[in-house]
Amino acid sequence: MRRTNAAEKKRRQELRTIALLVIVLLSMAGGIGWYFLQRPTAIDKLTLCPASGPLGHYVVLVDNTDPYNFIQRQAFAQGLKALADKLVPEGYLLSVYALGEDFTQTAKPLFEKCNPGTAVGKSELDSNPTRIQERFEREFREPVTQLENVLMQDKPADKSPIFEMLQLVAINSFQSENIQGPKTLVVYSDMLANTSEFSMFKGQADFDGFAASAYGQKSQTRLDGVQVKLNYLMNYPKLQTRKQLAFWERYFEKAGARLVAVTPVEG
């Protein structure tokens, strides 16, 4: 009887030891898994994008064919800060273009980098929050907010080739990068296209007539899946009617995009 009790006791002790080992091994496996899940994503030093590629794409098109008045300039400066601090998520690519009189001179973005992320939520156990914040400020936030000084012009231009710039934005950013994630186009403009072939200053534009014209057909582009947010510079209120806005809604719809927000910027 004593031998049986001793054997049973030994067996229970062995089971407890095995159970303890299993718990330790599971804890170690969980810790290793947590480390690999939580460790910082590798970032490309040149683009600041995740090594695996950007998670989404923000493109900003700034119309500077007319000088911004004081109020509009203040609104634009705040818009740049919002892009850097709140709107462009970590890991998303930000491309900024200028819309000038000669679109051949502004075909490439003035700025193009990913938001590398701030120190918020970063742990000293697997990263360096101080260096992360410094990199964000130095290589992303400061260059973005300083674009105000580069983009603002003092003299009005004779032309405003909006359609051509939208085509270039589509080709050189959305189509070229082909990012498999959310795509957003932010536009600062009065949306009054003005070239020798087509001008909205000559009367209210009818989209059906425009789309059927030779210029309308060659001005169409592809912006598949892009959400468009318009900061509508109210420079010529008599021309910037509901009909004119409807023209652009249909233009973007035909391009495969959707105008999701219109924010009037008066002054």
TrEMBL record:
The keyword Membrane applies. The chain crosses the membrane at residues 18-37. Keywords: Membrane, Transmembrane, Transmembrane helix. This is Uncharacterized protein. It comes from Pseudomonas citronellolis.
